[in-house]
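Hi U.,

Before I forget, here's the chain from the pilot set. I'm dumping it here mostly so it's searchable later in email.
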Amino acid sequence: MVVTGSVNLVYRGIPVYTFKSGETFGEIGMLEGNIRRGSAVVAEENTSLLSLSRDSLQSDSFPPDLLREVYSYLGKRVARLLLADEFYRSNMDVLIVQDGGCAPGYNAVTSFLTEKFEKKGRRVFVALEGFKSLASDTDKDFGLLVVNSELRQLLSNVPRVYDAAALKHQRGAAFRTERFPQFKQDDVQERAVSGILRRGVRVIVCIGGNGTMKGAKALAKRLKDKDVKIFFIPVTIDSDIMNTETIGQHTGVERGSEKLKSYCAGTLFIISFSFTYTHLQNVHRCVHTSTMLHQRDDGSRRWISRITQLRGCRCTLCSLTRASG
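Structure:
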């Protein structure tokens, strides 16, 4: 038991959990009698511990009343370990937030980041439903990402531990919500910030498109005086982040072009009714396949001109007028 100070549970250089005053550790090892799977390292000076050995419990001289109390505590402690949601209540070092529409690259980026952070001895958590989880802020809204298979085995009693290495082979985004417009509200953002600080998050990495970037900026503004670093990685097929390419945008164009080619027996006309970022994807696809694009306004002409210069191909743009009725 930690009497004063704190102790880190460390596995191969990775701090897994910090035990504070009043908390106990080593119960499973004492009951099983097996070799330890992690190391306990004093985290701060003036730390004092109270220990109880397995041999002491098996001694005939151990007071029976105290023995009953010890086993009662151990039973409750093991039950808590089996439902170890308290693992998510503090020291959530790095938190990954996926949000927005699905796009190629979400899971691959998440897997890559987890591997890099883990090698640096950092713990990586994930919001299971993007910004919605930050706003909800219950223990069940978060999971733990682990690459090392032995570390996952060590944390087998902790709920919602995910194999981050396998994520790189999964399409789309495993931990996002499609859209969460309520995150624009001040009270929702404040609730999210309160949970972030209470859980001891030190780094937040937001992954997504333009909407996710706005959410990351909102968090950064509210956390500017706190010791929390916020990063944003653009992953979207919409290419809606100014002055940079985005992960997934070229895959979106190529896949769309392949579909157009498979449908196109002669000339294919695509009708686009709004000049939005999604329409720009249509422009790219049509240019790529020499397809005719119908657009209701002239806003795309400059994009057509620019893209055809870059790609060196031809495209026909037809503007439609609003029809009565």
